[in-house]
Amino acid sequence: MPDYGLFYKEWRQNKALLVIAILVSILGNPLSIFNMYLTYQGCVTGKENWVGPCVFSVDYLNGTFISFFWIWGVVLAVSQLGIERSKGLFDFTLSLPYTRGQIFNAKFLTGGMVIVIPQFIGYVLSVLLILFLKPEQAVYFHNYSLGMIIVSMLAYSLVMAGGALTGNIFAQLLVSFTVAISPFLLISLPAINLEILFGGSIEFIYGPVPKWAQYLIPITFVDSKWVENSPQYLVIPAIMTFIFYIIGYISFVKLSNERNGYFFLWKRLNRPVQIIVIIIGIMGFGYFGFSASESFTGYVIGMAAGAVIGFFISYFAIYKKTKHL
């Protein structure tokens, strides 16, 4: 368990952001319900201007204000790792009389508590508000409110892991986003290119895919439609949250801070990642060229352009050191 002093440091260093995140997380859910109630009251008082009957229902199917709560996970992780490292404050943090494991756990627990506890308080207040206002129905309210806590923690742990592997804010966000869409980059994009090269259709793309498989792509949870499926699918982001925590913890403990400002803290990742980026550029631009021209010539031109663009983007992003803020 991290020392109290580390929690106090995290609080003092990010006090304004933490306070805002706590208040928004507590009030967001009740205000969403109250806004639905005001909409209903507007229908009752001006019924002649509305189409259909006035019904007061709490409907979370199409998302509400809390749909954006996952953003707090991203912002907190960037503040705790990316911004602190970019400001040159990380050397001071690591010089404190604590182990790297204690420092990472203090950061993670601070962020986790700011995400989980206020959202749960907001959920309880929303339940009380529903009991008081008595809507005719509450659609997906419980699933979405509690599920967003897990989704927010998934976003937080993913970006924390990205920050533990990288040396600046841009790298942290880029790596996190890439991992969030990695199943598409590693599976679907190569399959599409194989279809272009060999013709016909790839059964892997068009064949039956288990419904739960889409939730192996973290970015899927940005769309609120996940709430329509079984709550049991939330086990997947919960497991991914734990996996990303382990990756972040090991990276933070094992990697040095000497490459502060570079893309990766572990420089052995530079060349393999650069090659992967170039390959993805070749496949992505090749597919774009084929779609635009509907010809193999356009596909080849797109591949060539992708190789050049992928090389320059990867070279300047990975090997150019970022200055402190």
Describe this structure in words.
- With 325 residues, the chain is mainly alpha-helical.
- It folds into two domains: 4-168 and 231-259; 182-216 and 266-325, no CATH class.
- The chain contains twelve helices and two strands; from the N terminus they run ααβαααβααααααα.
- It has helices spanning 4-13, 15-45, 70-86, 90-95, 100-133, 141-165, 169-180, 182-198, 203-206, 235-254, 270-293, 296-319, and strands at residues 57-59, 137-139.
- A two-stranded parallel ribbon has the order 1-2.
- α5 runs antiparallel to α6.
- The chain crosses the membrane at residues 16-40, 60-83, 104-132, 144-166, 173-192, 233-252, 273-290, 296-318.
- Keywords: Membrane, Transmembrane, Transmembrane helix.
Give a short synopsis of this structure.
By secondary structure, this protein is an all-alpha fold.
Task: Give the DSSP E fraction (strand runs of 2 or more residues).
Answer: under 5%
The helix/strand order is HHEHHHEHHHHHHH
**What is the overall pLDDT average?**
86
Report the structural category: mainly alpha
Tally of individual domains: 2
Count of individual beta strands: 2
Termini separation comes to 32 Å
Low-confidence stretches: none
The main β sheet shows up as: 2 strands, parallel
Strand order of the largest sheet: 1-2
Query: Helix count?
Result: 12
Radius of gyration: 23 Å
Tell the overall outline.
flat
Helix content: 55-70%
Organism: Bacillus cabrialesii subsp. tritici
Transmembrane segments: 16-40, 60-83, 104-132, 144-166, 173-192, 233-252, 273-290, 296-318
Protein name: ABC transporter permease YtrD
InterPro entries: ABC-5_transporter, ABC_transptr_acetoin_YtrC/YtrD
